[in-house]
Structures are given as C-alpha cells and as structure tokens.
C-alpha cells in the first residue's frame, strides 16, 4: 500500500483568501505602519493569485465565454463598491475619482490587457488568432459606452464644467445598463460562438480538450473563495490607498494618478488570467477578459455612481479632458484596425502597449 502525502502548499488557493480576509478585518479603518503596509501588500498579492486560480476553475467548469464574464463582473462589482466608498470618504476632492478610475480601467484593459495578450499570442504562434465578429462587437460596445459616459459630459451646456445635468445623468446610467445587458445577452446566448477561441484555421474551439472539468461542488467552492479573494483584494487596496495618496502627493504627482494605481491593483486578477490564457493559445479568451472588463467597468460604475450622487457631497465630474479624449480616440481607431482581420502580429500588441505607456506618462506629467 502506497501512502501519498500532499504538500501543504497544495491548499494555498483555499488558505490565502481566508488569511487575506482575516488581515482585512484586523486592519480595516486603521492607520497602517510601514510594517503593516508590507504585510497587507503581500496578502493583496496572494489574494490576486488565488482569485486567478479560482476564476480559472470556474471558467473550466462553465466554459467560455461564461468564465471570463464571471471574473469581469465579480471584479467590477467590487471595484464599484471601492469607488463609491472612496468618494463617500473623500468629499468634494474625490468628485473626479469615478471618471479617473473608469478611464484608467478602459486604457488598462483595451491597451494593456489586449496588447500583452496579442504580444504573447503572436510570440508563441507568430500570429495571434481570434474571432473578429465577437471582438469587434465588444470593442464597438466599449467605444459607445465610453463616448456616451465620458466624452459627452465635456460638451454639454446644461451645467457648468464637464458634468451631466440630473436628467442627462439618468439617461447615461440607463443607457449604460441597457447596453451592457444587451452585450452580455449577445455574448452568452444569441451569438456565444462569436466569443469562443478559434484555431489558426479559424475553427471554433468549444471546450478544453486537455482536462476534465471540475465537479459542481469544486466549482461552487471556488466561486465562494473567488468572492472572498476579490473582496480582500479591493478591501486591502483601499487599506493601502492612504499610503498611495501620500506617496503620490510626496512625489508631486497629480491626484489622478491615485485612480490609475487603484485600477491597476483591481485589474491584476484579469491581467494575469488573460496572459495565462494567451500562453495556452486562447487569445479570444484573453480579449473577452480585457474588453469585457472595460464594458463592465463603464456599464456598472456609471449607474452606481449616478445613484450614489444623490447622497454624496460635491459635484460628479465625468467628462474627459482633451488629452484623454485623444488617447481614447486613438485606442478605438487602433483597436478597430487590429480587430478587422481577426489576426494580429507582435506589431499590433506593441501599438496598444505604446498607447498605454503614453497614458501613464501623461498621467504622471500632464
């Protein structure tokens, strides 16, 4: 009889979210010393890796594109809670936090996640192959929502500044919810095959040929642990946000950099999951994660902050400045030219990453 011993490290995906949640409970609302910031940061990194693991377990069970949708929506719902919490705590000085964080999420997903995924996929197979119909529909949805929610407020005249009037804000929030619901229905029901990975010959890959899907019980446990991990990620990110704000202020950087850092922290699980999918020649899954996260970020955040603006103090600034509108226009134009052929090389990945680099550079030195 052979006795097999499992390493304690084999249970880390179950242990790390619980540890991170305990650390979050112990540090919530406290001023963190340098030592505690280090501990919280380590727990934050561990919770990100655990979230990616559990998201992949769920994705393997439910299949694409449901798997990427679960992670995108879960992360965004908790991101919205973080934004509203920070706006409630920050008063008038946080009036542009929602805009800064949402736009940062759009640039990171549409240029960072998409660019890295195309780069990894093209380096592995010379050409990254994906479904142009589904990816094009996702990009068009992101462009429409970003234009309605982040560009139009700059040009309206009913209220001073880059803001919506109350009726305009209601319209933008309602349109965001309807368009996001329509996108999800298209992605998961009516045209699910448009969002499935494809082979180099263009054949749709439905399912994973290399491993049996986990049981329903394992998937449900992973779903619960994914929720714990994501709550911990966002809660711990909020815990270190005063340190981030202090560091940004000490470095003499614009306050909008805080939104960029928060978006990067919150989107880490999707970024890692997208890169791992691209390494497995599932570039379409990576694009689903990137563009789906951008859609969820706009489609859920704008309605949430619209409702929260009823009791939050200060104005709600949503309109982008001229520099950011140029970057958004370039992102949509380059993304469209990338998507049309359904195939991308290293060059397209580099183009998207250069736009992300330009965004970060201009955020630091506007």
From TrEMBL:
Residues that span the membrane, as ranges: 9-28, 34-54, 66-87, 102-123, 135-156, 168-186, 218-237, 249-268, 289-312, 318-340
Pfam family, one: Na_Ca_ex
Domain of life: Bacteria
GO terms for MF: potassium:proton antiporter activity; sodium:proton antiporter activity
Subcellular location: Membrane
Membrane topology designation: Multi-pass membrane protein
Signal peptide region: none
Annotated Sodium/calcium exchanger membrane region domain residues: 33-188, 222-362
Keywords recorded for this protein, A-Z: Membrane, Transmembrane, Transmembrane helix
Cellular-component GO terms for this entry: plasma membrane
The name this protein goes by in its record: Ionic transporter y4hA
Species this chain originates from: Streptomyces luteoverticillatus
């Amino acid at each position: 009889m052979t006795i097999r011993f499992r390493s304690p490290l084999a249970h880390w995906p179950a242990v790390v979210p619980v540890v991170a949640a305990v650390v979050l409970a112990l540090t919530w609302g406290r001023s963190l010393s340098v030592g505690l910031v280090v501990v919280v940061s380590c727990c934050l990194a561990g919770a990100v890796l655990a979230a990616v693991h559990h998201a992949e377990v769920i994705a393997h069970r439910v299949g694409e594109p449901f798997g990427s949708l679960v992670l995108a929506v879960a992360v965004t719902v908790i991101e919205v809670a973080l934004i509203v919490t920070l706006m409630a705590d920050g008063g008038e000085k946080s009036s542009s936090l929602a805009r800064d964080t949402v736009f940062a999420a759009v640039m990171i997903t549409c240029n960072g996640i998409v660019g890295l995924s195309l780069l990894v996929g093209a380096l592995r197979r010379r050409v990254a192959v994906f479904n142009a119909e589904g990816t094009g529909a996702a990009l068009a949805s992101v462009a429409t929502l970003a234009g309605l929610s982040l560009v139009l407020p700059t040009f309206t005249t009913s209220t001073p500044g880059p803001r919506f009037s109350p009726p305009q804000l209601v319209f933008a929030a309602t349109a965001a919810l309807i368009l996001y619901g329509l996108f999800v229905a298209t992605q998961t029901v009516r045209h699910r095959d448009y969002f499935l990975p494809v082979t180099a010959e263009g054949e749709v890959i439905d399912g994973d040929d290399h491993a049996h899907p986990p049981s329903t019980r394992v998937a449900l446990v992973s779903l619960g642990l994914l929720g714990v991990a994501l709550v911990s990620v966002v809660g711990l990110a909020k815990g270190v946000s005063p340190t981030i704000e202090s560091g940004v202020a000490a470095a003499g950087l614009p306050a909008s950099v805080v939104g960029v850092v928060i978006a990067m922290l919150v989107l880490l699980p999707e970024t890692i999951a997208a890169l791992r999918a691209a390494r497995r020649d599932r570039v379409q899954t990576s694009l689903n994660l990137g563009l789906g996260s951008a859609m969820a970020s706009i489609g859920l955040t704008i309605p949430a902050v619209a409702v929260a603006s009823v009791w939050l103090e200060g104005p709600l600034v949503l309109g982008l400045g001229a520099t950011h509108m140029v970057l958004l226009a370039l992102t949509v134009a380059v993304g469209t030219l990338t998507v049309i052929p359904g195939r991308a090389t290293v060059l397209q990945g580099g183009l998207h990453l250069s736009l992300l680099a330009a965004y970060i550079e201009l955020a630091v030195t506007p």
